[in-house]
Amino acid sequence: MVILFIIIGIGLFGLGVKRTIELNAQTEGYEEATGYYVYKELYSEAEYEYAGIKGSHKKNATYALVYEYYVGNEIYTVKTDYGTEAIPDRGYEKTIYYNPYNPAEAVVSGPGGAALLMFMGAMFVLVPGVMIVGYLAINGAFGMNANRIMDLVIGIVFTGFSVGMLYMMAGTFNPAVIWMMAGPWALIPVLMTICGLIVLFRGVLGSKR
User: What is the pLDDT of residues 93-135, one digit of tens each?
Assistant: First the structure.
């Protein structure tokens, strides 16, 4: 099962890299404009999913965010290529990259579908990786340094995952923007980051357990 997750993770990460390369090639020579969030479009409907013996739970609807931008005297719109539950205030600004020869062709700056694939792929690889390191540590592969190595690995993965969550929420590390986009939910990755850093520093300093 661990190997399967790693293979899936590598596949997702590779697909994200491929899409990123294609997007960079597509947008080469594009110019910048300031986009303003105007409205949302349904990306995926809310639905109930089976959740084991406790029955089902509701999966919230997600939305593509539509931005308006100006080129010359013309107004154009572009939407994100991913769905999100985090909806910004109307007028929230984003950089838009558009084709100067056809301004209707444009992309929204920040993390998109390709970045999400890479993030998910990395987690599919790193989490099983932690399990493998844990198995090796339990079986004495690292000798007296087992606890320290486990703290370092868990701290790095946990911190990286939570920091990545923060960035994926808003496409920035600006606290005001993150709070606007995610509200109190932003506290979860913040607390996770703090926990990850504590474990990481414990590993750096050396475990006394």
Answer: 999 999 999 999 999 987 777 888 888 898 888 888 888 888 8
Asked whether the beta carbons of 188 and 164 are under 8 A apart, the reply is no
- Alpha-carbon span 171 to 63, nearest angstrom: 16
Q: What DSSP letter does each residue of 107-149 carry, written as one string?
A: EESS--HHHHHHHHHHHHHHHHHHHHHHHHHHTTTTGGGHHHH
In the chain, pLDDT over 90 holds for what percent of residues?
29
Q: Which residues contact 41 (CB under 8 A, 6 or more apart)?
A: 63, 64, 66, 79
- CA–CA distance, 39 with 206 (Å, rounded to integer): 51
Q: What's the whole-model pTM score? A: 0.69
Strands (E), the chain: 31-44, 47-50, 56-59, 62-71, 74-79, 93-99, 102-108
> Pairing relation of β-strands 74-79 and 102-108?
unpaired
- The contacts of residue 17 (CB under 8 Å, 6+ apart) are 114, 118
Residue 183: CB atoms within 10 A of its CB come to: 11
